C-alpha cells in the first residue's frame, strides 16, 4: 500500500495546499488519481457545505475566486460530476500534473506511487483577451 501527497501549486511553484491519502494501491492511472483527489475534496466540502469550494475544478454555476470557487448558496456537490469536469479540464490543459519530477500527459498513464508519491497539480489561468 502507498501514501500519496496531493499538492496544488501556482505556475511559479508557490504551494497553495497539500494533503495526504494513505492505503492506496502501489500503481494507479492518472484518471484514477484525479478522480480520487476530486472525491476526497468534495467529501470534505460536503461534510460542512459552505459557499466556498476549494477544489481542483469549478462546480457548475459557481464563480471563480482566488484559489477557490464561490457557490450561490451552501450546498453539497456531486463528486462524480466534478470528476468528469476534472478529466475534461486535464485533457484541455486546464491543469497539469507532475508525478515526481515528470509531467504526466495521458489519463490512462500509470503512476508508480511507491516511486512517485508526490503529485503536484498546477492550474493554468486563462489570460484575459487571449
Report on this structure.
- The chain contains 2 helices and 10 strands; from the N terminus they run E-E-E-H-E-E-E-H-E-E-E-E.
- It has 130 residues and is an alpha+beta fold.
- It has one domain (2-123).
List keywords for this structure.
five-stranded mixed beta sheet, 2 helices, three-stranded antiparallel beta sheet, globular, 35% strand, 130 residues, alpha+beta, 10 strands
Count of discrete domains: 1
The number of helical elements comes to 2
Low-confidence stretches: none
Give the helix level as a range of percent.
10-25%
Which structural class should the secondary elements be placed in?
Answer: alpha+beta
Compute the CA-based radius of gyration: 14 Å
Number of strands: 10
Strand order of the largest sheet: 2-1-10-7-8
Q: Output mean pLDDT.
A: 91
Distance between the termini: 44 Å
Element layout with pairings:
Blueprint: E1 2-9, E2 15-24, E3 27-29, H1 30-47, E4 52-53, E5 63-65, E6 68-70, H2 79-91, E7 95-99, E8 102-104, E9 110-112, E10 118-123
Parallel strand pairs: 1-10
Antiparallel strand pairs: 1-2, 3-9, 4-6, 5-6, 7-8, 7-10
Helix pairs in contact: 1-2
In short:
The chain has 130 residues and is an alpha+beta fold. The chain has helices spanning 30-47, 79-91, and strands at residues 2-9, 15-24, 27-29, 52-53, 63-65, 68-70, 95-99, 102-104, 110-112, 118-123. It has one domain (2-123).
